[in-house]
Amino acid sequence: MNWIAANIIPLQATVTTFLLALSFQFPMRLGLFSLAGVGLFGVGAYSSGIAFAKFHWDTWSSVAFGVVVAALVGLLLGLVVARLGGLYLAMATIAFDMIVVVLAGNLTPLTGGYMGLFGIAGKVELWHLGIIAVIVAVLFALSERGGMSRRIEAVHDDAALASSQGINVSAYRLTAFLVSGAVAGLGGALMLMVRNTTTPDAYGFGLIVVALTVAIVGGTKSWIGALIGTIIFTWLPVFLTVVGEWREVVYGVIVVLAALFFPTGIWGSILGVRKRLAERKHAGQRDVVDEMATEPDAAETEFLQTVAGKDSEQ
Amino acid sequence: MIQSIMNAAVLGSIYLLFSMGMSLAWGTVGILNFAHGAIFMFSSFAVYLITSMTALPAILCVIIAALVGAILSVLMQTLVYGVIRKRSTDHHAAERNVIIGGIGLAAILIGFASHATKSGSFGFATTDQNPVLEFAGIRITAVSLTIFVVAIAISIALAMWIRRSRGGLALRTVGVDAETAKLMGINESRLAIGTMAFAGLLAGLAGGLLTIHLVAINPTTGDGLLLKAFAAIILGGVGSVLGVVIGSFVLAFVETFMILGGVGGWASAVAFAIIFLVLIIRPRGLFGRAEVRRT
Questions:
Q1: What integer is the mean pLDDT of A65-73?
Q2: Range of A301's domain?
């Protein structure tokens, strides 16, 4: 109990960072390099704070309001950037994040301007945060199973091919922005409720870097990756005080190493190793039964891939 | 009024010096360097470290800053970006990992500088003053004038080189289709290193000049400029020299006159509004060529 009391801030941050990382990760699973999560996190925080301070709503109504507003803003953004892809989408979403900061700084009567929003004394306990994190994780885990996960992967790998298979790609893209908004809004609203105060600077370029770092280093394929990234980056400074002082440098080194050697993130690399081990075991068993079996098998898969129209490069 | 136009022109020249190399590297060899702002800042920081031991003439400070910028940029290309591109199989993954690598590199450089300066500002100890020139009632410092002249001269030289020389042709070819360019005997990795060296040189040059112009900058100055550069590049069109010139000056003039008009609080929104609107209405910018899909 003492340990929990002493580490209440990193514990709370684990949940809000996890939600932010998920909001970055979900569009990436569909192949959308969107950085809108940070702006939507800010939208969630500010709209719940305004509901709490200006409309005098209670804690959970305010949080719900933040989630709904952020989800709607996410959906609108998704409609606006529907035709953009690749780096251009990244640029447009960074611009969106920065516009949120400028709006928060200039709409002073609502947001408190650059001085910030104070006195949001929401009643959110640690166990509330825990339950919410588990529910969200379960929902994300469900989206990673069965037909849904295969359709998401198809959109990621080749949108044109997915479309020709009857998958409504633009609906999936819009849903990605909606989900990203809802999760980011939830994270932002909860963060404000436990921190009680916020300023526009909190949603700047620095938070984009943190969110991207957490999502990429953990791995973008699964919620487990987001969790791994969150735990590493929230708890590293707590356990290593040296890291606290050189935090930015250490983060930078980790990110560069991840980009170089673990482009699929830590969880992606673990899955890769596991798959390779399974394949080796599989191939070994086959060898005993029939030494010839593996050779035509490889040719067959290659043939099937060609028929499916998948470029070997992709 | 004329004074404000002069100020806007100097601001635009800073944006231009900063954005030009970034736009070139992005539009030709396909590297969007998110650490460009950090190179800009760190070149200036390196000169600050040197001049804190012994004061140097201003011109030497600027030259050293430019060289440091070029070296940093080449190191990034050979140790990180080149390796990422060699290792990743598909184009989109390469693009994404180059951005992520750049963000990491920027964090390292900014982290070092913030640690050393305790996030405070730093400037150069120069042996000479920055004289104020005056003609026809307009006052301009020697450095401001230098910034403007250098930015315009480099833009013209670069535009001519790209259009007229064999190297420029090779660079344009890589920008249109890297694989075919390779088949035609163009050494892409050497070209990429050269382009990144030039981009880093310009970033360092901008860092040195801006530090003397403003007397001091701080470790996060580069981040702000990076976002401005995105706006200037996207407005003009990625890879177009004329585009980045127009983009930089439009951005600087709009910002300057918004501050004059008393709506300065919204001035920083201009850059982001430009990025957003241009991408939605005309994604290739004013002077960019239509996107050629490279798969």
A1: 97
A2: 273-308
Output the pLDDT for position A306: 52
pLDDT at residue B291, as a whole number? 54
Residue B247 covered by a domain: no
Mark yes or no for CB contact B92/A216 under 8 Å: no
Q: How far is B97 from chain A (nearest CA, A)?
A: 5
Choose the most confident range, by mean pLDDT, from A53-57, A120-124, B88-92.
A53-57
Q: Do both A253 and A302 map to the same domain?
A: no
pLDDT (mean) for B173-191: 84
Do A168 and A130 belong to one domain? yes
- The predicted-structure confidence for B256-270, as pLDDT tens digits, reads as follows 988 888 787 788 788
| Pair (A155, A7) in one structural domain | yes
Shared-domain flag, residues A120 and A253:
yes
- ipTM of predicted complex: 0.86
DSSP characters for B151-201? HHHHHHHHHHHHHHSHHHHHHHHHHH-HHHHHHTT--HHHHHHHHHHHHHH
Q: Distance (Å, rounded) from C-alpha A92 to C-alpha B191?
A: 29
Asked if B195 contacts B202 with a C-beta cutoff of 8 angstroms, the reply is no
Q: What CA–CA distance (Å, rounded) separates A281 from B216? A: 62
A151 and A295 both lie in a single domain: no
Measure CB to CB from residue B100 to each of A105, A212, A246 and give the nearest one: A212
Tally of domains within chain A: 2
Residues A116, A220: one domain?
yes
Q: Please count the residue pairs, one from chain A and one from chain B, whose beta carbons lie less than 8 angstroms apart.
A: 137
Structure confidence at residue B17 (pLDDT): 95
In a domain, B184, yes or no: yes
H/E run at residue B107: helix B91-117
Q: Per-residue pLDDT for A76 more than 50?
A: yes
Angle at A204 between CA A201 and CA A210, to 5 degrees: 120
Question: Measured between beta carbons, which residues in chain B are less than 8 angstroms from residue A90?
Answer: 99
Residue A314 with chain B: CB contacts under 8 Å:
89-90, 295
